Amino acid sequence: MKIRMFLLLCATAFAGMLGGAEAVKLPPKEKFYLVLLAGQSNMAGRGFVEDADKVPNPRILMLNRDLEWVPAVDPVHYDKKTAGVGPGKRFAELLAESDPTITVGLIPTACGGSSIAVWKPGAYFKSTKSHPYDDCLKRARRAMQDGTLKVILWHQGESDCNKKKADAYEQAFDEFVKRLRADLGAADVPFVAGQLSQWSKWNKFRKTVDAATRKVVAENQPAAFATSEELTSNPDKVHFDRKSQHTFAERYFKAYQSLVQK
Q: How many angstroms from the chain centroid is the CA of residue 168?
């Protein structure tokens, strides 16, 4: 088992050195299912990476920083040096398992610490030296040249749980969902939002953002809400740990299935 894992890791490293789409063979566009990952750090992932997370699956790819398709391994994101295990790769595994004829492509766009205010055209986010919304569009459009967008996964809101921002969250989030779908021509693409962490007592601002998220999801179908009940954190008490990210991914996938199996 150790030898097999070593060989797989070497293969992944070699593919990374090759770079570019030439390193992987893409399926037909209709069989290349794209998953857009957006939001802040708990979507980017801060779970501690283990050896198993670095083992690629031949039917799961990710768009790297240079807009090239490469084998998907954690960390999928690169927003900050602390990027780790998020829900993306596990979600992709479940999606691939559900249909042996497809390949899954992950599109990482989450930016740790970003508020909903920077998820709009032209907004710059200093912490990641990026334009979250504009970069998300660029990356999604590049990916959609090769595949078909099947679902948008979202986890964000922690940065808006305060006196200055919470009350404005509902309108801003609603505008974001509508704008993103319009800009991507994805009106019927399922949108799944994950709930904020629950390991600490919620104040009124956290409750406001949670209620706003649920309302926007309900009013922008097809969309669903994935709960964070009983999920646990890293020692920082801010980010979901590796195990909980995998559990969260399973909840995201179940929510997605509830939309596409109707």
A: 23
Locate the DSSP E strands across 26-82: 32-39, 60-63, 69-71
Tell me if 94 sits within 8 A of 247, measured CB to CB: no
Sort strands 60-63 and 69-71 into parallel, antiparallel or unpaired. Answer: antiparallel
Distance CA 48, CA 79 (A): 15
Q: Which residues pair with 61 in a beta bridge?
A: 71, 105
For residue 116, give the DSSP letter: G
Q: What single letter denotes the amino acid at residue 229?
A: E
Residue 244, CB-side half-sphere exposure with 13 Å CA sphere: 25
Beta-carbon contacts of residue 226 (< 8 Å; ≥ 6 apart): 192, 193, 194, 195, 248, 251, 252, 254, 255
In the sheet that holds 223-226, the strands lie side by side as 69-71, 60-63, 103-108, 32-39, 148-155, 191-194, 223-226
Measured between alpha carbons, how far is 77 from 20 in angstroms, rounded to an integer?
Answer: 17
Instruction: Give per-residue pLDDT as tens, 56-78.
Output: 999 999 999 999 999 999 999 99
Length of the chain: 262
Retrieve residue 184's tokens.
């991507």
| Greatest Cα-to-Cα distance within the chain, rounded to the nearest angstrom | 54
Three-class DSSP category at 175: helix
Radius of gyration of the chain (CA): 17
Confidence at 262, pLDDT banded by 50, 70, 90: low
Q: Kindly list the structural domains of the chain, giving each domain's residue range(s) and its CATH number in brackets, ordered by start.
A: 2-260 (3.40.50.1110)
